[in-house]
Amino acid sequence: MPDWDDLKVFLAVARAESLSGAGRGLKCDAATVGRRVARLEEALGAKLFLRSAQGYALTDAGTRLLPHAERAEQALSAAAEELGGAAGALSGQLRIGAPDGCANYLLPQVCAELCDANPGLEIQIVALPRVFNLSKREADMAIAVSPPAAGRLTVQKLTDYHLHLAAHHDYLARHAPIRCRADLRGHRMIGYIPDMIFDKELDYLAETGAETVALASNSVSVQMQAVRAGAGLGIVHDFAIPFAPGVVRVLPADIALRRSFWLIRHADDRRSDRLTRLAEALGQGLRREVARLEAQV
């Protein structure tokens, strides 16, 4: 009979695809992780991983073990929730993956409220300009700008948000006035690095009529800081404008975008009352914060 601690190590290696990555999550060294994996393989009489220079990949036996280990993990989590009193305050660790615009301008306030209401809750915000892999448990839940097309996931629309072309007062004062789209020709555009756009919903360039981006970044926050520095014009989130004094919308009636945030969870997590309650609280908080910040623009 496999030991649960060894199964936990197995899951960590399967998700991190390396001993060192698993060790960081488990707060132990890679050598210890390797010994635990070897012990589990010996107990089961099967090789669970193929080791190579690229990392650790599951064998057929490891692939068959994975869903059983995940069910054991979910059962223990559910038991802890029930014994801890799921109807009370929320506690434990929650890791949220989100695009950096949401992570920088919305989640800090929303998560602060959640922590105030639930003192035993520990929240980790992972801000990355890409799609998260929930199957590898990179996060407990993820926020995305479009719903995924595949995978064993549950998807919930959280809220719409709005974006506009914007610039700093200083930039506008130094350049010719912009009264219509045609006036944008010759202005410096700020936006995404074209080949690093990870979701079609982030491809804003066509909205401005510009053919190239003169100053580009894969980070929404870097783009906003460039706009704030007076470096040019960029499509920015309305909810980010209150954090950038001097930045104003340009041609707001002509260039206006609406996008949505979606909450994505692993399908098996639907059985977790704790994660469901956290998802509901997170969604309510994000809706309130988007509305509050957009009202200031």
Automatic annotation (TrEMBL):
<keyword id="KW-0805">Transcription regulation</keyword>
<feature type="domain" description="HTH lysR-type">
    <location>
        <begin position="2"/>
        <end position="59"/>
    </location>
</feature>
<dbReference type="GO" id="GO:0003700">
    <property type="term" value="F:DNA-binding transcription factor activity"/>
</dbReference>
<dbReference type="InterPro" id="IPR000847">
    <property type="entry name" value="LysR_HTH_N"/>
</dbReference>
<dbReference type="GO" id="GO:0003677">
    <property type="term" value="F:DNA binding"/>
</dbReference>
<keyword id="KW-0804">Transcription</keyword>
<dbReference type="Pfam" id="PF00126">
    <property type="entry name" value="HTH_1"/>
</dbReference>
<keyword id="KW-0238">DNA-binding</keyword>
<dbReference type="Pfam" id="PF03466">
    <property type="entry name" value="LysR_substrate"/>
</dbReference>
<dbReference type="InterPro" id="IPR036390">
    <property type="entry name" value="WH_DNA-bd_sf"/>
</dbReference>
<dbReference type="InterPro" id="IPR036388">
    <property type="entry name" value="WH-like_DNA-bd_sf"/>
</dbReference>
<dbReference type="InterPro" id="IPR005119">
    <property type="entry name" value="LysR_subst-bd"/>
</dbReference>
<dbReference type="InterPro" id="IPR050176">
    <property type="entry name" value="LTTR"/>
</dbReference>
<protein>
    <submittedName>
        <fullName>LysR family transcriptional regulator</fullName>
    </submittedName>
</protein>
<comment type="similarity">
    <text>Belongs to the LysR transcriptional regulatory family.</text>
</comment>
